[in-house]
Structure formats: C-alpha cells, structure tokens
Amino acid sequence: MKQIANWIIIILLFFSIASTHKLKFVGAFVRHGDRVPNKNIPKDGTIWQCKLNSLEMYNNDNLPSPTPSRLFGKKFMQDRNTLPGNCSRGQLTEIGAKQLQSLGSKFRNKYIYDLNFLPQELDPDFIWLRSTDKPRTMRSAANFFLGLYPQKDNRKQDVFPIHTMDWNNENMHFNTKMCPKLAILKNQIKRSPKYITHMKSIEYFIYQIDKIYGFIDLDGYNFLTLYNNVKFRINHNKTLPSGLSDKMIEKLKIEGGWYANFVMGNKTLVKLTIGPFLQDLLNAFDSKISGENPHKFHLYTAHNSGIVPLLAAYGAFDSRPVDFASSVVFELFQEKKKYYVRLSYNDRKIKIPGCKKKKCLYTKFKKITQKMIPKNYEKECRI
Ligand SMILES: *[C@@H]1O[C@H](CO)[C@@H](O)[C@H](O)[C@H]1NC(C)=O
Ligand SMILES: *[C@@H]1O[C@H](CO)[C@@H](O)[C@H](O)[C@H]1NC(C)=O
Ligand SMILES: *[C@@H]1O[C@H](CO)[C@@H](O)[C@H](O)[C@H]1NC(C)=O
To answer: Least buried of 48, 109, 114, 127, by fewest C-beta within 10 Å?
Structure first.
C-alpha cells in the first residue's frame, strides 16, 4: 500500500515537472547517412554500384502538383567518372537513406508520440527543412522527413521545400570561399609545434599507412578520410586494402579523431567556420521566444565539417570521428517566464561548460554562443 502511495507521488511529481517545462522548439543538426567515397584509392580495383536512382523531373508549368510526362535518369559513360561503377562521388547509399529514415522515425516516436510536441498529421507551418546543396544531404533531409512523417499512399502529391544556399554561401561547413582566412589558419595549426610533435610521434604508423595506400603528404586529414573509407567498405562488404589490420583501423579512428579535435575543433577556426550558423540558430530561438517564428522543428542536414565545429563551439566534441546520421539536437524549453536550452549529441545530453545544469538558462546559453560568433566576420575572414 505504502509503495503504491510512493508511486503515485512520483507520478504526480513527474507530471508537475513535465507541465512546467514546456518544449517550445527543436533544432536538429544532422550528418548525412552512409555514402560512397568521394575519391577512389589508387589502383584499388573496387567497383561501386549504386541502386538509388534519382530521376530528374523538369516541371515546366510550375504546377504545385507536378505530373511528369517524361523522366530523365543519369547514366555515367564508361570509365569517365572518378569512382569505378555507376555512383556519383559521395552519393548517399540505400544504407544511408535507411539510416536517415530510422533517425526520422526515432524523432517521430519522441516528439510526436512520447511528448505530443508535433502533431500526428503533418502541419507544414511547423516543420522547416534546410540542407547544404549536395545530393547526399538533400536526400538525407528527404529521408529523415519520410521517417518523421511517412508518406501516405492516397495523399495528394505535395512539394515540400528543402531550403538551401549555394555551396559558396553555405555556413554549415568549412567554407574557404566565404572565409579565405580559414585556409590560412588551418595551415598555421598544421605547422604548430604541437601538431608537428604529434605527427612525429606516429611516424611509424604513417609509414605503415603510406605503404598500403601510397599517399604523398599523409596527414591527419587523410586519417579521417581513410577511416571513413574503411567504414564504407565494411558497410558494403567490400574488401579492405591488404595489410590493413584491425589494430591499424582502430589507430586510424583514433588519429582521425585527434585531427578532427585538434584542427577542425580549434576554437579560432571554429568561430569562423560555424559562427555565422550559430547566429542563424540564435535568430531562430529569439524569434521563437518573441512569438514571430511559427516553426516548431528545424532540420539542418550537413556534414562532418559542420558537426565537429558545432560541438567544439560548446566544448562538447569527443575526439571521435563523427558517425553517419549523427545528430546534434538543441531543445528550447519554457518554464514560466524563463527559457532554457538543452543540447544533446546522439541522444547523450551534454552539459555546456559555463552552464549550471544540462538545461541551460537561455540568456546564459546565448552569451556562450555569442562568444563563438565573430563580431565582424568579413573583416576577420580577410587575408
Ligand atoms: C548500377 O548498377 C547496378 C548493378 O548493375 C544496377 O542494379 C543499378 O540499377 C545501377 N544504378 C544506376 C543508377 O544506374
Ligand atoms: C588555434 O589556432 C590558432 C591559430 O593558429 C592558434 O593561435 C591557437 O593556439 C590554436 N588553439 C589551440 C588550443 O591550439
Ligand atoms: C553484407 O553481408 C551481410 C552478411 O552476408 C549481408 O547481410 C548484407 O546485406 C551485406 N551488405 C551489402 C550492402 O551487400
């Protein structure tokens, strides 16, 4: 009897907490799913076949419900593309598409069913999608959305926008076009005594990898791309280069993570990489708080090169290569007149240094974020 009473108290407490902390807005920054390589390993002999087709549809009448009369498919000419086979460079694979769909359905379970935050039927006013202008991220956004709101068969065909910027204006990646200074800073970091000492300490590993892959100028960045390349191969049952042991794969992972943290996660670099995006994010929060922003959910699909600085900006990067379909989620809560932000990375809640709790007072969060936004981006980016 006493136990039941205790449970009732716990349940009542839970509801009183749940009702005072009201979720207002969610922003999810997500890496695309599994893909094929961008570059092939020289003399590697692996052929990459892609099953996911994308059909081009040219909608000349600009109708809201296009009914295409003719579709066009891309077909590579024999031996005229970098990657042997019929995939585009870096193309999202079926595995990648599924990863994003299941991430979308995880969000469906959490934000629609568990928390009742988003409506069960799609309300286009609540959801806003943004992606970098690459086929793999665009497609990742679409697949996430399919998981969040599965398509119903008999529904009228609608056109849902995925907002984007051209690559040269994009602020969700390491953009040296918009910020030439980034390239200089990166080189500076790679010439720093700490970087050089580290590379010296793994000289033998570099020699081993060089023997297998035949790279010139092997550096930390290569370890990250080679580690990714190993992952594609494992995901797709492709043979690994001969001589590459499990121990070396583990070392690639560690060294790739070290590079990501030391170079991509350098605070000076981070500000100029992801600072402008952080401003976009603060704008979304502020306009939500002021009542101008009707959206409840923003999806941003991007790359490793955005996830690392985003986490590093909050002192939350774990020095491990970022997995496909990884997510950094910002949740904005209201509690009476106060607002709070909670940050999580792949479901792990993160305590932002400088905040008292994992649920960070918005005014505090905003101050911490503003420190990572350049005061004068153009000037700081000039060389
Ligand atoms: C690529 O080749 C595979 C195997 O031959 C085939 O199943 C697939 O449809 C092709 N994909 C494209 C996009 O042509
Ligand atoms: C980050 O890079 C800048 C520019 O090269 C350098 O001055 C600074 O020491 C680096 N920060 C760390 C923590 O290594
Ligand atoms: C790889 O092999 C496993 C085990 O045989 C199989 O289940 C899986 O579907 C294969 N994956 C691909 C992409 O062919």
So the answer is: 114
